[in-house]
Amino acid sequence: MTTHRAPLNLLLGGGLVVLLLASAALSLVWTPYAYDAIDIAARLDPPSARHWLGTDPFGRDVLSRILVGARMSIAVGFVAVGVGLLAGVALGGLAAARRGWVDELVMGSSDVVFAFPAILSALLITVTLGPGVVNAVLAIGIFNIPVFARVTRRAALGIWAMDYARAAAALGQGGLAVTWRHVLPNVAPLLIVQASVQFAIAILAEAALSYLGLGAQPPIPSWGRMLYDAQTLLALQPTLALFPGLAIMLAVLGLNLLGDGLADRLDPRLRAVRLV
Predict the structure, then answer these.
(1) Distance in angstroms (rounded) separating the CA atoms of residues 83 and 145
(2) pLDDT, tens digit (0-9, with 9 covering 90-100), for 140-194
(3) What is the residue range of 111's domain?
(4) Per-residue DSSP letters for 101-121?
(5) Spatial distance between the Cα atoms of 121 and 84, rounded to a whole number of angstroms
(6) Cα–Cα distance between 206 and 133 in angstroms, integer?
């Protein structure tokens, strides 16, 4: 059953992710209208040949804003996951190589971060530092660090127990050399899968922060902010909430399906150890 499902998940997830990336890339060179172009005469227009997804209360083209919002979501997700990946892998690899008090310190710090839900942690940081895209990225990235640290440490401990890693250490290779040559190449598939999952979480977190007014600030388009602006207009124009909601759903679904397919394609055993 898994054998048949994995290619389907990989293809469907990959297709949705490609669509997300293509939308963001397209917004760099073309949108039907400028995302901040106001046309009061066309405010709250339904989907039509002129405005394919309709307009918002200021007459701004919804399709243009969704395309630019895709670029924002990808940028936030990429940087936040990158921060978590780089710092988390370094800490997790260090904890597995050194053990002892270093391991306890890294894992204890991770437990402190995990004591707070992702959105709550992001709220605390953005409320303290102020709203904005940079602070939102920082908040999401900090939450990702212990996730990747735990994944790396758990997998690295298994590698360190292998004969070839122990032999390399016995031959005089230091912890850094063994980690670089033997641990990281074997942990990489697991990290790729986890990165796809965290990317989806980052998009959700950015949308939630923007919905609460703590992420991207107007006039920069954000899917979460578009949902917030649409909530009082559902009776007049329900598509204002439908289209950004669908964009978030498809992006998150695509990344999760991609991660699920990659887990089976790279190593079926990853299902047993992957954090979800």
Answers:
(1) 7
(2) 998 899 999 999 999 999 888 888 787 877 777 776 788 888 888 889 989 999 9
(3) 24-250
(4) HHHHHHHHHHHHHHTS-HHHH
(5) 14
(6) 9
Please report the DSSP string for 262-276 in residue order. HHHHH-TTHHHH---
- Whether 206 is covered by a domain: the verdict is yes
**Has residue 8 been placed in a domain?**
no
* Structure tokens, 8: 């389907």
Show the tokens assigned to 109.
């710090």
User: Per-residue pLDDT for 274 more than 70?
Assistant: no
**Tell me, what CATH number does 235's domain have?**
1.10.3720.10
Q: Model-level pTM?
A: 0.89
CA angle (226 as vertex; 222, 228 as ends), nearest 5: 120
Token pair of 262 as six digits: 């990659």
Number of CB atoms found within 10 A of residue 162's CB = 13
Q: How far is CA 240 from the centre of its chain?
A: 24
Q: What is the mean pLDDT of residues 209-236?
A: 90
What Å distances lie between residue 101 and 5, 104, 106, 108, 264, CA to CA?
43, 5, 9, 10, 35
**Please, are residues 261 and 15 in contact by the beta-carbon 8 Å criterion?**
no
Task: Count up the domains in the chain and report the number.
Answer: 1
What separation in angstroms does the CA of 259 have from each of 3, 117, 132, 178, 254? Answer: 15, 22, 29, 28, 9
Percent of the chain with pLDDT over 90: 56
Give me 107's structure tokens. 């894992």
14 is a domain residue:
no
